[in-house]
Amino acid sequence: MIWKLLRSNISLTQIIGFGLANLIGLAIVLLSIQSYWDIDNLFNSEDGFLSNNFIIVNKKVSLLKTLRNKRTYFTEDEIADVANQPFVKRSSVFLPASYQVKAFVRTGKNFPAFYTDLFFESVPDEFLDVQDAKWQWEEGDELIPVIIPRSYLALYNFGFAPSQGLPQVSENIIKQVGLKVRIVGGGKERIFDSRIVGFSDRLNTILVPYDFMSWANKNYGSGETIESARMIIETENPADPSIAKYFTDENYELNNDALETGKLSYFLRLAVFGILTIGLIISALAIGLLILSINLLIEKNKDKLKNLHLIGYEVKTIARPYQLLAISLNLSCLIIAAIIVVIVRGSLLEQVSTLYPGFDPGSSGIILISFVIIVMIAALNWLWIKRRVVKTIV
Amino acid sequence: MTIDLKKVDPGISPDPDNLNSEVWGREISFSLPNKYLISAESGAGKSSLISFIYGERKGYEGDIVLNGLSAKTMTDDQWTGMRRNNLSLVFQGLKLFPELTALENIQLKNKLTDYYTESQIAELFDVFGLKHKMNEPAGLLSFGQRQRVAIIRALSQPFKWMLLDEPFSHIDEANIKIACDLIIKELTDRKAGMVLTSLGNRYSMAYDHVYNL
């Protein structure tokens, strides 16, 4: 009966106007928050497609250094300084071999026999982008697993092999080829079996397990201090401008892939953030419109509200129809907006997965966000209308 | 429950002809179950006095003490409780809701305390000869009919004091008699008191005290 009294003077036009505006605003807000999560996942998850938080650093090779045969090693202090930078999550030097390495294939039935000088480097396993059960070595093992850069294989297949009339090989074929490796140093030498177990996109060097490298350096090394010319750094946020600044100041060189990806993700996030802001503004304006409408409604029904209060109705009872009106309007807008977002996101994800098969989207937190938003809006409406009614009739 | 007026003054510039008010600026105590008549000409502030007691208006000097509570410091919730259970008022302006039917106007009040049953309400309409108007919007009734609906509404709640602000101005003699008899009976049954304002007409009721405002 109170509702029958209070519903008069409700303007349908205002309510529809509010509904549309709020719907658009909320849909934009929800969609941008969801996109932010999805993009975040694209760039930042452990094996996300575009996640690349590794930076490889070396000192610049200059003419002067070449002429003086001066190496570009990192000193202990420099290594410690890099490790202590705030943007560095963890870092390690490339451990070089202090012995000589020769690789050869003795019999060449399907594969040409060759003999070549080689080099090995090593980094701790956590910096590797290749996971393979064979990637391990213990003292006594005769087989050294090796990882080469994927680009080396491409060089061979598309550059070297055609020009020399040699067969092209696939990754699987080359993994089958057994190599002999002779390591020479400290007046000793030893021959190991070796096999390529993986291809790295991240590390542009020939890698052997860290354990093998440590053991070999100890037993076959020249005995000199082992110095490293390259470092690998893992960072939380490659887009952090302080990274580029630090390395420029130190006059170090870095591979820029990570930084470029970082910039890309930074701009994407910036764009999403901008859209989110617009959505928030639209929503805020819509809610402002609703508040004004209800304000007007309360003002128009002022005498009725006062009379209800005078015959013994509590303020909270009188305010409730308006509170419920506002909250149910907001709730319906939010539900429709959430449905729209789920549908739009579904079709967007479909396109993304065509580009990146197997892309694992971020969790769909729409329901959680919606819940948080509705609780906030409801609380705001509830308190505001109550206050307004109290101001009007008491 | 007593109603104590403690030097209540409406604060408006005093009418030079009306400096001898028996109410304004005096200490008066209304006690149960007495019936009081406040008699005055138009403009002396009858409605102001009633609205001060009912807590509708607060801009006056002095204080009114209801059941030991100062009208000036009572919270809004305390006022609501007072209006539901202790004070009943027939407003001069009636304050019915024109878009609701006569019956709905009564139900709106009655459901706060469920004082009457539906059949008792219908009976009251019958007593006032308004049974056929029960389901008409209050806005379509004549002022006299509405006054009677307002009296029914004022009865549809528990109370210690019934306040009537010129309640019978548009009702014919026969219906005034019906209304007065009914009100007296209700007051006796409920051991309640009454404060009635009028332009001077005593409506053939017996009062315990008459004040000239």
What does the model show?
With 394 residues, chain A is an alpha+beta fold. Chain A is built from 12 helices and 11 strands. Chain A has helices spanning 2-6, 12-44, 63-67, 76-83, 150-164, 171-176, 210-220, 241-250, 257-300, 302-310, 315-355, 366-393; strands at 54-59, 88-93, 95-96, 100-105, 114-118, 121-122, 143-149, 178-185, 188-200, 230-235, 252-254. In chain A, the strands form 3 sheets. A 5-stranded mixed beta sheet of chain A has the order 5-4-8-9-7. Chain A has a 4-stranded antiparallel beta sheet with strand order 2-10-1-11. Chain A has a two-stranded antiparallel ribbon with strand order 3-6. With 213 residues, chain B is an alpha/beta fold. Chain B has helices at residues 46-53, 76-85, 102-113, 118-127, 143-155, 173-190; strands at residues 3-9, 27-30, 35-39, 61-66, 69-70, 87-90, 161-165, 193-198, 209-212. In chain B, β4 (61-66) and β5 (69-70) form a beta hairpin. The chains are: A alpha+beta (394), B alpha/beta (213). Chains A and B meet through α1 and α10 of A and α2 and α3 of B.
- Continuous helix count of chain B: 6
- Classify the beta-strand content of chain A into a percent band: 15-25%
Number of helices of chain A: 12
Number of strands of chain B: 9
How much is the average pLDDT of chain A?
A: 83
What ranges of chain B have pLDDT less than 50 throughout 5 or more consecutive residues?
Answer: none
Which series of helices and strands of chain B comes N to C? EEEHEEHEHHHEHEE
Percent of residues of chain A in helical segments? 40-55%
Secondary-structure content class of chain A:
alpha+beta
Roughly how many Å apart are the termini of chain A?
22 Å
Rg of chain A, nearest Å: 33 Å
